[in-house]
């Protein structure tokens, strides 16, 4: 059975059948949509991808956090097939379908946003969810500006490109919308040299408040948008004392707090939503934007907020043709059911413990491993030229990724310096597969770092 298989490579990569499709891809698809992996999917189950040439790859990328319940979960496949026999689509502004309503009810039940009565609606991608969250905040506050952070990734629409920190994602795309201002995110591993961690929290809070002086008065700020655990920025958790301080500042100035849970939601961090960690510390966001693993690979995203915020939006400002598509809602309802029934948040914690324990061994053994960090099963490992200098080892990181792929393990980079490898394996991965992947990863580090 494929879902229980181990990584196995028996051809030169890419194999001949895969190479032929990759050549066709290169002829008709823009090269800007780059793929550095020698894999053409034939089928996939759980945490395993089989290519056209019969090679088996262990998938630690999961469609970049989309497949928390794994590839082709049979119950989700059945739910989508059942819905497809009834109808594919009916725009929600034209006809009501129960799947949309049921999913909105479920998200209002489980999303940890501030307020007793909540409302939810659906879009198609993480970028759309983030952009809609900002629109809602502006409608409610009647203010024009937002604050985002260094290292942030929020998408590739015009607004979300402006919100995203790394401008390699926006080359030649200006002019950008006004009113997007950036504060420094608490990247504690790279805090000022010699600064204790506790002092660093105060330092980053002060840097945040400087935005009110240097960019936008607080009275003009509609929202602060923050990832509970930065994804593209390097898998950096927002420290709880820092987020508590940000919440307090927001409340003092009537600013909404938006949690971008596009990548961190749906059991990835050991909670259904990463902002549940905030709630345990006494902090709740006003709005959650989420996507990726919400529907096991069917395009869907969601925005959840309390009633008074949602009801402030004028008619026609939000919505869209495909938002809350019937097939996607069916997939999402079954996905959440499986996550709750099978306790995948607990599984994420167990996986995270095993991975973090191994990563910490490497941290102690290898001078090229600078830092390991994360929440639950969302973990980053940062590579440096040496621990003393902390100089980012971008070339080494790329070499490790390629070496892993050559041996049947798919991992992906991240980080503002391109020197972090992220762990996003499906939470249905078996213990044997996890161990096999860790072994491939460590051998790649030894080979590429020559240690």
Automatic annotation (TrEMBL):
Family membership noted in the UniProt record: Belongs to the class-III pyridoxal-phosphate-dependent aminotransferase family.
The keyword Thylakoid belongs to this UniProt entry's keyword annotation: no
Matching CDD domains: OAT_like
Cofactor: pyridoxal 5'-phosphate
Associated pathway: Amino-acid degradation; 4-aminobutanoate degradation
Class in the EC hierarchy, top level: transferase
Segments passing through the bilayer: none
UniProt entry keywords in alphabetical sequence: Aminotransferase, Pyridoxal phosphate, Transferase
GO molecular function: (S)-3-amino-2-methylpropionate transaminase activity; 4-aminobutyrate:2-oxoglutarate transaminase activity; identical protein binding; pyridoxal phosphate binding
Keyword Transferase: yes
Protein known as: (S)-3-amino-2-methylpropionate transaminase
EC number: 2.6.1.19, 2.6.1.22
Catalytically driven reaction(s): (S)-3-amino-2-methylpropanoate + 2-oxoglutarate = 2-methyl-3-oxopropanoate + L-glutamate; 4-aminobutanoate + 2-oxoglutarate = succinate semialdehyde + L-glutamate
